[in-house]
C-alpha cells in the first residue's frame, strides 16, 4: 500500500483533468461538471492521503526518482503535517471555487466586462486553468526537492496569470501583468539562491537538490545569509509582506472572487509554506539572524494592511488588503520562533484559507446581486437576503478573529507567541485585531444594513442560469453548498482545533529543534483537546 | 621561398564525411541550377538539400559514435587535415545542431503555400521593385537559395571545427557570404530586405577585417596559426604580450559581432527584420551556434591558459549584452525586432555561460561543465527561435507578413493554437519553468555562479526580469486584447512549416520536462581537444 | 630581418581603413576601406611570416586574397542592387530600418 | 631584395621619360583657345559629356570583372602548384582537379545563366 | 624542389645596372620606332601601296617625324575631363610597358667590355619573374581605364571599359596557358625557363598552350583582329579619343612596347628564348655563347611582331560579343582541361602511374571529376544558355549585323585595277571599275 504513488496520483488527476477539459470540445456546462467531478475526486484522494498519514511519522509517502542527474535533481514528493494541511485546504477549496464561479464565465462580473471577456469556451478555459493551478499547488506542497519545488512554484504563475487576466473586470490584464511581474521577479531572486544551493552542495561532494541531502550540508554563515535572503524575498513577495504587497489589492480587485480565493487562500500560502519549509529548515542560523527585521515587516504588514483596508470602497479590494494583515500575522508567528508561534502560524494558514475564502465568495454573491463592487452603492442587503447576509457576517467575524471561530485560536496563539518574544511586539499585533474589528464591522454595516439601495439598472438580472441574478432572491442551493461547508469548518475548528494541532505540532516541534529553539508545545484552552483526535476529521 | 619539403597531409575522409557531403550537395546544387530546366529546379533542389542534410546527419551520428578518447580521456576525437580540423565531441554535437536547424531552414525555404504558390524569395533579385522585369519574374523564385544555404551550413560546420585561425577565418567567410546574399532576396518588402543585406554585409566585412587582423597579430605572437601551438606559446609566454592582448581583443570583436553581442549588436535587429523570415530563422539559430562553438574553442583551447586576460573583457560584454538586449527590446513595436533583441539578450546569457569555464580540477564530479551548459542552451535556443520565426511567417495580411504588434492583437482569439504555441515559445525564451529555456538558463547561470561570476549572474537575473516583461506583454497582446479591424490573420501553411513549428515546440517542451538525455549527451561530448 | 616597420605600416593602413569605414558614407567607399583593412592584414601576415621564417603567414595571405575577392563579388552585387533601386549608394539614404 | 632594385631603376627611367614628354608637349605645342576644341568629341553633333565618374555603363562589364576575379584567383593558386607539382605528385593532381572542378561548376552556372553572353 | 638558382643576379654594381637599364630603354624606344615603320610598310604592301618612303632611307625616319609632329601639336585637355587623372593616365600606361622588360633574358652570361666581370644579358630575374610580368602588364590597364574614364566623353569611357574588359578576359586565358610551362620548367624565373628549354622548346611539346598564348597575347594588346577598343566605326578612337600631342604618343608607344613585350615573353617561354634554333648549335657551337644569342632572340621576337602585322593586314575585326564569347567559352575551358591533361601526363611520366592509382579514393575522385568536366563540356555544346533567360539576339535585330554594302558589280577578287592618272578626268566607267575591296581592313584607316 505504502509504495503506491499516492501523491503523484493526487497531482496527476487534476492535471490530466485540466488537459482533458482544455482539449475535449465540451460545451461549457459539461466542462464545468467534468471539472467539478475531477476536483471532487482529487478531494477524495487527498482524504485518502490524510487517512494513512501518521501524525508523528515526519515526512511520509515519499517518492524519489532521478530527474536531471546532471543537476542532481530528483522528482521527489512527500508530505508532513504542514504539507498535509495545506494539501487538504487546497483540495477542499477548489471544488467550492468551481461551484462558486459556476456562472461567472457566462455572465461577466460587473458592468464593464463584456468588451474583454471571451465567450467561446471561456467556461472551459476557467475550469482547465483552475484544475491546472490545483495540480501545481498540490505539487508545490508535496515537493521535497528544491529544484522541483522551484519549477512548480514558478509554473503555478502561468495558470494564475491566465485566470486573473482572462476572467474578471476591466483592467484585469494590466493587473495580471503586474501580478506576474512581481511574482516572477521574486521567483528569479529565488532562482539565484537555488543556484547558490547547487554550488554549495557541489562544493561538498556530488550536487543534489533533495531536501534531505541539503539539510546535511553545513552552509557557511555568510553564504547561508545570502541564500536565506533570496528565499525569503521570493516568499515575501508571494505571501505578501509589506513592502512588496502592492500587487495584491489590484489583483483581487480586478479578478473574479473565485480567482481571488485561489490566489489568496491557496497560492499565497506557498509563501508562508516556503518560509517554514525552506527558510527555517535550510538556514536556521540565518533565520534567527533575520528575525528582527522580518518581525518588523510582519508588524508593519499587520497594521498597515488593516489601516488601508478600513478606507476601501471596493469590497474585493478591501478583502484583499485584509489578507495582507493576516499574512503579517502568519509571518509573525513563523519568525518569533517558538512553538506557539509555529503552531499558530500553521493553524492560521488553514483558518485564513477558510475564512477569507468564505468572505470572498460571499462578497462575490453580494456583488452578483447588486451589480457593483462598490460598498457605497450597496446597503440593506440583509433585508433582502438575510441568509447570505448571515453567512457573510460569520465569515467577517472569522476574519476579525472572534472567539469561538477557528481564526481566534490561531490568532491567539500567534499573539501569545509575540508576547513571549517581545511584549511590545505582542502589543502592536493586538492593535491589528482592533483594526480588523473596525474594518470588518464597518464594512458589514455599510453593505448589509441600512436602507435598501436598488440594484443598478440592467445588471445581474436574468443572466444567471439558475435565476439567482435577481437582486431579490436569497442564497441559492449552489451558493449555499459553497458557503456552508466553509462556515461549518470555521465554527468546528473554532471549538475543536485538536486535529489541526495534532497534525502541525510534531512538525513544528522538529522544525524548531532544527532551528535550535525548544519549549513546550502549546496547550489549547478547549476541553476536547484531551481526547486524541485522528486527522481524518480534519478533512 | 624557402624550400620546405612537402609532406602530404592526411585527410580523414570518413570523419569529414558530414562536411564533405554538405559541400558536395552545395556544389551539386549549383550544377542543378545550371542544367535542370527551371520548372523542375524547385523540387530537385529541395529534395537534394534534404537528402544531403539527412546523409550528413547520419554521418554526424556515426562519427559521434566512434570518436576515440585522446590524452587523459577528458576529450574524445581526432585531428585531421594536418591539424586544421579538430573533430571532437563538442564539434560533432554542434554539427548535429546546425544540421537539424538547417533541415528546419530548408523546410521553411520550401514553403510555398503562404505566398500562394511561390516561395518567400524574390523571382529576380536584381529586378527593380515595381518594374516590368519584376512583374515578369512574378511567378518565379530563386532556387539558388538552397545551394547558398548549403554553403552557409558547411561554413557553420567548419567554424567550430577549425583547429587553426586561418581555417576559422575561411569558415567564417564561407558561412557569412551566403547569408549576406540570402538576406537580400525577400520577395516582399524588397527595399527593406536589400537594405538589411547591405548593412549586414558592410558591418560583417568590417568585423571580419578585425578578426583577420587579430589573426595576424596572434600569429605574430605565436609564430603559428595552430590553436594548440598558440596555447603552447601562451603558456610559455614567449614573445610580445601586447601583440597577444590586442590580437585577442580583435579576434573577440570579430566573433562577438557574429553572435551579436553589445557593442557589436547594431546589425542584428535590422537584419533580422529585413531578411526573409525563413532566412532569419535559419540564421538566428545557425550563426549563433557556429559562432559560439568557435568562441568556445578559441578561448578555451587557444587562450585557455590566459583566462585572466580575456575574462574581464567578457564580463563587461556579457553584462552589457544582457542589459541592452533586454532593455531595448521593451521599446520595440515589431515582432521580428523584438525577437532580434531577445536573441541579443540570449547571447548575453550564453556569454555568461562562457564565463563559467573551470578547469576539471576545480569541478566536482558530476558537476555540470560550462561547455555542457552552453551546448544545451544553444539547443533550446535554436529550437525555440526557429519555431518562433516560423510562426511569424504565418501571421499575414494581403501585404505579406504582418509583424507590427498592433496587427497581432487578439490573435489568441482567432487562432488559439498558433498563438498558444507562440506564447509557449516566448515563455521558453523568458525561462519559465517546464520549458527548455528554463533549464538552459539554469545551466548557464549555474556554471557561471560556480565559477565565481556571481555578479554577472545577478545582472543576468535582473535582465531576465526585464525580458519577461516584454515577453508577457506580447502574450497579453495576443490573448487579452480585443482584435481590431486590421488584425492580421493566420494563413494555413503547408506541411513543411507546420512540421517545423511542431518539432520546435515539441522539442522545447521535452527539453523542459526531460532535459536529462540531451544534457547527458552534451556532457558526454566531453571537452575540446587541446 | 626586422619586420617592425612593415607591421607598423600595416597597422597604419588598418587604422586608415577603420576610420574610413566609420566616417565615410558612400557604400562603395566604405567597402573599399574594408578591402584596405584586409590588405593591411595581408601585409602584417607576410611580415610576420618573414619574421618567424615560416610560410603560414604567406599562405594565409593567399587565402585572404581569395576571401577578399569573394567579398568583392558579393558586396558589389548587393551594393549594386541597392544602387539600382534607389539611385544612391549612400549609407544614410538606407534608413528604412531605423526605428 | 637586391633582385628588385634594377626594376626600380628602369621604372624611374621610364617615369622620367614619360613625365618629361608630357611636360614638353605643353611647352612645344601651340596654344590657340577655341571653345569648341575643348568640348568632348562627338562626331560633330552637340556633345553630351559624361560627368566624370557619373557615367553609367552596361552591367556586363561588372560581371566580366567578377568572373575575372574568380579566375585570376584560381590562376594564383595554380602557379605555385605548377611550380611544385613534381613534389606533390598524385595528391597534388587530385586536389587541384577537385579545385578546378569546383571553379568549373561556378563557371558552368554563369555560362548557362547567360553570364557570358554579350547581347 | 630545389630553389631557383638565381645566384647570377643581383651581383651587378650600380653602374652596370644603370647601363643595362638605359640599354633596354633605348632598345625599346628604337624598336618601337622601327615597328611602326615596319608595320606601315608591310600593311602597305599587303594593300598594294608603298607605305612611308620619304623620310630617311626607306622612310625609316617616318615614325620619328611623326613623333616630332605630335610633339608640336597643341596639347588639349577637354573641359569635361578630370585634369589630374587625364594627365597621369598616359604616364601610367607607359611605365609598366618599359618595366616588364626588366626580366626578359636577351642572352646568356657575357663578359662586360672594358672590365673583367661577367653578367647575364638580363636586367634582373626573380623567382616569380613571369608573375611579375603579368602583374606589371595588368597595371598598364589602369592607364587605359583611367584615360578613358577621365576624358569625360562617352566614347572614351566605353573604349576604356571595352579594352580593360577584353584585356582581363584574355589575361585569364594567357595565365592559364602559362601554367603548363611552369609545370614543365618547375620555375617561374625567366632564366630558369629558358634553361629548361635547352633540349626542346616548350612551344612544341606544349603546342596547345602556345596557341592559346598567342591568341591571348593578340587580345591582350588590343591588336587587330581584336582591336575593338579603337574600333573607329563604333568608338572613334576608343579610350584615347580625347588625347592629343605627346600624351597620345605615349599611349601609342605603350601599345607598341606591349606588343614587343608579349612577343618577348612568348619567345622566352615557348621558343627557347635566346637559344639558337635547333641544329644551329651543332654546326656552330658558338651559337649560344657571347653576344650572339641576342640575334636569335630579336629574330624570334620580330617573327612575332611580323605575325601581329600580318594579322592586322589580313583579318577583319571581330564583333565584340563574338570576341568575348571566344575568350570565355573557348579559350578558358580548353586551357583548363589542357592544364589538367598536361599535369596528368607529367605525373604519368614522372612515376609509375598505375602504382599510384591503387589509392581508390584518388581514383574515384579523378574519374568522377573527369566525367563531370566532359559532361559539362558536352552539355554546353549541346545547348547554350536558357531560352527563357537569354534573349535571342538575332531575333532582336532582324537582318543581323550591318556589313559594308557590296560594290556595284559584286566583289572583285585579286588585285585592284591599277590607278591610271589620265590627263582627262576619270570616266564614270573608270570609277565603277575601281571599287573598294569588299572588306575594309580595320587598321587601314590608321595611316597618319
From TrEMBL, chain A:
Q: How does it sit in the membrane?
A: Multi-pass membrane protein
- Domain NADH:quinone oxidoreductase/Mrp antiporter transmembrane residue range list: 143-435
Could you tell me one molecular function GO term of this UniProt entry? NADH dehydrogenase (quinone) (non-electrogenic) activity
Annotated localization: Endomembrane system; Membrane
Tell me the domain of life.
Bacteria
Could you list the residue ranges that cross the membrane?
Answer: 6-27, 34-53, 73-102, 123-141, 147-167, 179-200, 226-249, 261-283, 289-311, 318-339, 345-367, 387-409, 421-442, 480-498
Recite the UniProt keywords alphabetically. Membrane, Oxidoreductase, Transmembrane, Transmembrane helix
Q: What class of enzyme is it?
A: oxidoreductase
Q: In what ranges is there compositional bias, type Low complexity?
A: 525-539
Identify one Pfam family in the record: Proton_antipo_M
| Name listed for the protein in its UniProt record | NADH-quinone oxidoreductase subunit M
Organism the protein comes from? Nocardioides kribbensis
TrEMBL record, chain B:
- Can you tell which superkingdom this protein's organism belongs to? Bacteria
Where is it chiefly localized?
A: membrane
Assigned EC number: 7.1.1.-
Recite the UniProt keywords alphabetically.
Answer: Cell membrane, Membrane, NAD, Quinone, Translocase, Transmembrane, Transmembrane helix, Transport
Span of domain NADH:quinone oxidoreductase/Mrp antiporter transmembrane: 162-465
Q: Note the topology in the membrane.
A: Multi-pass membrane protein
Q: Give the reaction(s) catalysed.
A: a quinone + NADH + 5 H(+)(in) = a quinol + NAD(+) + 4 H(+)(out)
Subcellular locations according to the entry? Cell membrane; Endomembrane system; Membrane
Q: Which InterPro entries does this UniProt record tie to the protein?
A: NADH-Q_OxRdtase_suN/2, ND/Mrp_TM
Q: Where are the transmembrane segments?
A: 15-35, 47-65, 85-110, 145-162, 168-188, 200-222, 242-264, 276-300, 312-331, 338-361, 373-395, 416-436, 442-472, 493-514
Q: Which family does it belong to?
A: Belongs to the complex I subunit 2 family.
General function of this protein: NDH-1 shuttles electrons from NADH, via FMN and iron-sulfur (Fe-S) centers, to quinones in the respiratory chain. The immediate electron acceptor for the enzyme in this species is believed to be a menaquinone. Couples the redox reaction to proton translocation (for every two electrons transferred, four hydrogen ions are translocated across the cytoplasmic membrane), and thus conserves the redox energy in a proton gradient.
Question: How would you summarize the oligomeric state and partners of this protein?
Answer: NDH-1 is composed of 14 different subunits. Subunits NuoA, H, J, K, L, M, N constitute the membrane sector of the complex.
Q: What is this protein called?
A: NADH-quinone oxidoreductase subunit N
Which species is the source of this protein? Nocardioides kribbensis
This chain is encoded by the gene named nuoN
Automatic annotation (TrEMBL), chain C:
Q: Where in the cell is it found?
A: Cell membrane; Membrane
How does the protein associate with the membrane? Answer: Multi-pass membrane protein
Q: InterPro entries annotated for this entry? A: NADH_UbQ_OxRdtase_chain4L/K, NUOK/Mnh_C1-like
Keywords associated with the record: Cell membrane, Membrane, NAD, Oxidoreductase, Quinone, Translocase, Transmembrane, Transmembrane helix, Transport
Report TM segments: 6-22, 29-49, 61-83
N-terminal signal peptide? none
Its predominant location is: membrane
Q: Which domain of life is it from?
A: Bacteria
Report the enzyme's class at the first EC level: translocase
Q: Which Pfam families match?
A: Oxidored_q2
Q: Name one GO molecular function term.
A: NADH dehydrogenase (quinone) (non-electrogenic) activity
Q: Which family does it belong to?
A: Belongs to the complex I subunit 4L family.
Query: Self-association or partners: how does it assemble?
Result: NDH-1 is composed of 14 different subunits. Subunits NuoA, H, J, K, L, M, N constitute the membrane sector of the complex.
HAMAP family found in the cross-reference section: NDH1_NuoK
* Task performed by this protein: NDH-1 shuttles electrons from NADH, via FMN and iron-sulfur (Fe-S) centers, to quinones in the respiratory chain. The immediate electron acceptor for the enzyme in this species is believed to be a menaquinone. Couples the redox reaction to proton translocation (for every two electrons transferred, four hydrogen ions are translocated across the cytoplasmic membrane), and thus conserves the redox energy in a proton gradient.
Q: Which PANTHER family match?
A: NADH DEHYDROGENASE SUBUNIT 4L-RELATED, NADH-UBIQUINONE OXIDOREDUCTASE SUBUNIT ND4L
What name does UniProt use for this protein? Answer: NADH-quinone oxidoreductase subunit K
The organism encoding this protein is Nocardioides kribbensis
Lineage here is: Bacteria, Bacillati, Actinomycetota, Actinomycetes, Propionibacteriales
Give the encoding gene's name: nuoK
TrEMBL record, chain D:
Q: Extract the Gene3D superfamilies matched here.
A: NADH:ubiquinone/plastoquinone oxidoreductase, chain 3
Location(s) in or outside the cell? Cell membrane; Membrane
Q: Where are the transmembrane segments?
A: 6-27, 61-82, 88-110
Broad class of the protein's primary localization? membrane
Name residues in a coiled coil: none
EC code: 7.1.1.-
The way it spans or sits in the membrane comes to: Multi-pass membrane protein
Pfam families assigned to the protein according to its UniProt record, in alphabetical order: Oxidored_q4
The chemistry this enzyme catalyses reads: a quinone + NADH + 5 H(+)(in) = a quinol + NAD(+) + 4 H(+)(out)
Q: Name one GO molecular function term.
A: NADH dehydrogenase (quinone) (non-electrogenic) activity
Q: Which UniProt keywords apply?
A: Cell membrane, Membrane, NAD, Oxidoreductase, Quinone, Translocase, Transmembrane, Transmembrane helix, Transport
Q: What is the protein's quaternary organization?
A: NDH-1 is composed of 14 different subunits. Subunits NuoA, H, J, K, L, M, N constitute the membrane sector of the complex.
Which family does this protein fall into? Answer: Belongs to the complex I subunit 3 family.
Q: What does this protein do?
A: NDH-1 shuttles electrons from NADH, via FMN and iron-sulfur (Fe-S) centers, to quinones in the respiratory chain. The immediate electron acceptor for the enzyme in this species is believed to be a menaquinone. Couples the redox reaction to proton translocation (for every two electrons transferred, four hydrogen ions are translocated across the cytoplasmic membrane), and thus conserves the redox energy in a proton gradient.
Q: What is this protein called?
A: NADH-quinone oxidoreductase subunit A
